[in-house]
Design a protein that fits this description.
The complex is a heterodimer of chains A (964) and B (536). Chain A has 964 residues and is mainly α. Chain A contains 36 helices and 8 strands. Among the domains of chain A are: 629-713 and 723-747; 755-964, no CATH class. Chain B has helices spanning 2-16, 20-35, 42-67, 92-112, 123-139, 143-161, 167-198, 203-209, 215-236, 245-251, 254-260, 263-278, 291-311, 315-335, 339-368, 386-401, 407-418, 425-452, 469-487, 489-504, 506-514, and strands at 73-76, 87-90, 523-524. In chain B, strands 1-2 form a two-stranded antiparallel ribbon. Classes of the chains: A mainly alpha (964), B mainly alpha (536). The interface between A and B is large, with 121 and 133 residues. Strand 4 (747-748) of chain A pairs antiparallel with strand 3 (523-524) of chain B.
Amino acid sequence: MAAGRARTRKQVSFAAPAHDRPRIVCMNLLATVVLLPLLAGTSACALIGRGNTPARRLLTALAAGGVTLAALALLLRMAPAVFAGEVPAAGFEWLPQLGLNIGWRLDGLALMFGLLITGIGALIVLYAHHYLGSEDPAGKFYALLMLFMAAMLGVVLSDNLLMLVVFWELTSVSSFLLVGYWGHRADARAGARMALAVTGGGGLVMLAGFVLLGQIAGSYELTEILQHRERIVADPLYPLVLALVLTGCFTKSAQLPFHFWLPEAMAAPTPVSAYLHSATMVKAGIFLMLRLYPVLGGTALFEQVVTGFGLATVTFAAWVAIFRHDLKGLLAYSTVSHLGFITVLIGLDAPMAKVAAVFHILNHATFKAALFMSAGIVDHACHSRDLRRLGGLYGWMPWTATFALTAAAAMGGLPPLNGFLSKEMYFAEALAGADRLSWIVPAVALLAAVSSMAYSLRFAHDTFFNGPTRDLPADAHPHDPPAGMLAPVALLALLCVAVGLFPESTYGPLVRLAADAALGGPPPEFHLALWHGVNGPLAMSAVAVLAGFALYAGLMKGRALHGYLPRAWSGKLAFGCAIDRLFAFAGRVTAATENGSLQRSLLIMVAFAVLLAAAPFWQADALPAAGDRTLMPATPLALALWALLLITATVIAATHHQRFRALVLVGIVGLITALTFVGLSAPDLALTQLSVEVVSTVLMLMGLALLPQHTPRESSALRRGRDALLALVAGGGVAGLTWLMLTRNHDSISWFFLERSLTEGGGNNVVNVILVDFRGYDTFGEITVLGIAGLGALALLDGFRTRRPAADADGRAWAFEQQPLLLRVAARVVLPLALLASAYIYWRGHNMPGGGFIAGLMTSVALVMQYMALGQARAESLLHGAAGRRFTRWIGTGLGIAGLTGIGAFWFGRPFLTSAHGHPALPVIGELPLASAAAFDLGVYITVVGATLLTLSVLGAASKEDHA
Amino acid sequence: MNATFADVMMQMFRQHLAVLPVLLPSLTAVFMLLIGDRADALPRLRRIALVSVALGLMFALKLALEADSGALRVYRVGDWPAPFGIVLVVDRLSAMMLVLTQAVALPVLWYAAGGWDTRGRHFHALFQFQLMGLNGAFVTGDLFNLFVFFEVLLIASYVLLIHGQGRERFRVGLQYVAINLAASALFLIGVSLIYANAGTLNMADLAQRVPLVEGDAAVVLKAAALLLLVVFGVKAALLPLHLWLPATYAAASAPVAALFAIMTKVGVYSIVRVHAVIFGADAGGSALVAGPWLLPLGLATGLLAVCGVLSARSLPRLVAWLTVASVGTVLAGVGLFSPAGLSAALYYMVHSTLVVAALFLLAELLAAQRGDAADRIEPGPPLAQPALLGLLMLLAAASAAGLPPLPGFIGKLMVLQASSGIASQPWVWAVVLTVGFLTLLGLARAGSVLFWSERPELAGSGTPAGASPRMLAAPVALLGAGVLMSVLAGPLTRYTDAAAAQLADRRSYVQAVLGVEGVITTRPYGFPAPDGEGRP
């Protein structure tokens, strides 16, 4: 048996739940068919083809050919099993939660497509080896070709719909890369992008359809889905599913109105066109329609929509093809037309139509690949594909002409070639469809056939006859190509004849097999043959041939056709225009929103915060009222201070342009805040606030020295009014919230801290115990912030030297000419005192207001004074600041002490920052309240001092040079 | 003797594993500060930094493996009982974020050690502090502690942002600082309001307290939660708070921008913790307070960001907009407020972080080979390594656009499936697919211009030598991790599914952190505790 696990059709129809299916984890033949080109093919070609020497080019082509033939051989090896009615399948779970699993399935339809892909693929590899120029990188070409082949094989062999999407999009991407192979050409880039946009976009739409389909069917496995036709067709979402899936199919198979990408994709190298745009990728949509026909098809809706789009496509594209002057352009539109042809057959609700569709898929691939390759040969020899310039080439390249003419005759539907056979079947189905749908079906089919004959004729006549050549490029030298390039064309052309003469013994079995799979059951009895007697279809064929001849002769009279200029409007232009508009629109949206303005960002943030915070109040039944907490009396002093606070804040907002004044006023705000803390019995906070205020004011003054003293006015009055209004609303909102909170009693966890501070934290000062013990981890984070801030100042101003003016606008000197004696003396006296005071504050912190943070700030203030009194240089030399290196080490030391203190608890088996405390009695000092938290606090102290001094010395250094 | 010492160390390691992701970078940074950043110390600093981050990755992986058993690791800092002290809680989500952070940091650091770390002071110490902040935010189980670590990671990011200096970095740096300071103020206001109304800031305690808050207090509580949504939205770059991001990320040095890929995810993470869990579906009167906002805003973010992708004129800006777009998709997933949506969001978030980080690095490598054209999306000189860079870029772009079989596709598929059957399904599907399609258009255009459209006359203005394997290793590793996400999509989505389910299970969370369920931890202010009650 071919695959590891193969099942008979009977088993398949048994509706086994997906998870019961045998899943094989190991590699098996089916997976190998895809993985061989996907992994081995791409990497081998990419590696071998790295150097672009002739020998390597040959080796690369051989590798690609070998891989392709190997895949073909594997498929052939499994073919007998499929012909015997089995459906080899294999798979394993990838993402079962999503229903996305690796599943392979080889039924008749898949086998037919697989053989098509690998068979034509092998011919393309041979052809491309001769086609590619010596400067074209062969490795890249073949690697991409292998990638594409793998993707196509993946599409046709997938059992899982989602995995099918995976490969489907992979074909889009690889075709993007292949069309853009000559990326230096603008038309190649545009064509590649367009193909990707249309087919990739279609794939996304299809994905949506598949997800819906899978949800309706309860599985994404085709084997499973194919069992649930009734459920799917009856579902109210069926029309939507159909629309989404068909969009994917129509984009891929270039049906109207998505057809325009295909002619543009002709910028690709010709082997790519021959492979992707005639035989394989464009057939993927067709494949999918056939694949899902058993579940989605057979409804009136399906028939009307699919037949409708198909008919529109087949006639429109055939007509347009006549007027294309580009050889490949003509073939591209012809392809679009033939795809429409097949689409019509898929749409028609008759089993025989499916047989005809399958048959024509094979026929079209056969003759169209041959035609594209001939076009490539002509292009190669003449350096032009313009039908207005070509002509009379029969004499120059008789062999090419012979094969191309054969294939063109097949395209036109002349007997005894294969194209004729499928066209006859098409006419028969169209006539039958007239009863169900409308007389329009056969009428339009006939019209399309007339055009088809005409453009086939033009292809043949305008290229190989109708000579002589006109105005060919100087380097053109028409000649038959080497045998290797001609062989694929010859083979396919002969196949056209062979199939035409002996259809049953050539394509017959495969057609039967594929139609069986597409119909979900055996097709009706039929016999493929050249001659079916004189009947309606034959009459239509005769009319089509004659009318086609007449049409072409009429159009070509006096070479009128050569003077035809394509219309300005086309799908391609509309698409390009839409894309341009899209990009322009996106640019406008982005420019309108993101203009790099800080004011705008802040405005939006504040407004959005107001909006969001207001929403719950808006929705509430009643606005929350103030609480009933007993309020503290406000003393007149407090009222006066707060009035001052309001006034100061207002003045700052109004006059912040004067930076110095604003800074001083900010100091006042800080001072009042500190006093308020005192009034609310929060001495720790007050002390901290005060020292922070001092240090930050000094640092900001030093910073301001480097900057202009006035902010230029940048905003209009209107804008400032708007901002003021918003600020009032936001500030009022916060005030309102605060009021609501302050007037209420709250339950909270704070009782714990009051209760345990002394007994378990070892300190009377609850605030400090919270800081260094209960929530010491927060403090650890915050001193890290402080340390990083110091480093930040260093990093920001590193190497930064500014020319600070010697005096300000009013002529006041920035620095002391001579450091005042009093200050120097005071600084010297104060320093030791201040250090002592810091030590005291630090020490008593655990029990009374104070602590490492405040002590650190006090020390910093004292050292700041030193800086001011002694001047930067002397203070630096005294403290050995060494451009910040010393102070970064202090920061490191402080953080290290804090961190290691916390880690110390590890040795006692306790978590980070667990504290220990005791009250050892010392001989002289008496009982000493000791807590490990004190060591932590020491770390805090050192970090604070280090960070402050680092900032100070960096700011000083940034401007010190100007004195020299 | 040695064996016992090793045993003790192992015992210690196991016991304190939850805090190590914070302590390791912190102490590494401290050590680096003590060494100093003189040029001759650089090789040493690099080694220390790399070893530390690699070690951190191992710790994170260990935590993730452990978390995947479903157990919550609760670590009581200072040995204080929850909710009074600070607890660290490592669940599946936290562990996943730790792994992601370290996994992005390691290649980025490797890349930075290729030369960027010489262009400013104390790069390595700051990098470690940044990691400390990120990890700290991901492991904490306390809302105020989350604020503290937000500060740590923010202040480190301020400095890293201006690393390398330059006018543009200072300009956007100032904006970045100003916006984040404002956001921090809002954070503080929000946290205070939550404390005032719920009486606690321990996340587990909040999870049981918030449903009980009623009446006026619930109104204020909801307002507070929404203020936090603004704060986290700023970090995550949620519309309309996203405006700061593109210019900032585009201006940052490549490794910093790559590291910052994880920064937006801190915002996402916090939204998940606060708005999808504490204020989640089971939060009584305050349930789903962000519900009406998150999904529409997430979808709108995606649409607006993709406009930015289409209009970007330089590669870093394009990548920055991709970052915003990915956040849109992620937050839309979170905004579904269902385990499936959350799982989709988490999976997509991990992928997009890796891809965006890789893209920022690739953008710089590419720019270096394009001479004067640099990182602008316009034709440039032929590249030194067109195939290699093209392949990597293609891989990243395809994943960002959500093309199969890359994880971007899987993530989007998960979002599609998660939104099936809900009222907003048409919107979610339409927007997710449209954003994917437009991203595809934008990236195809950018890629075809950058790689195909050459101006041979400029040849020679780019560096003749390509990027060294050493530098390439970083984006390759990040993209490799992305591909691995696809291959291992089954186990990974099982993990994210479990993580989402774990987040929805408030009871287990409360029990693990507080020990018992339903215990009242708060008391009216000013009343002494009843006698005889020990630590709860």
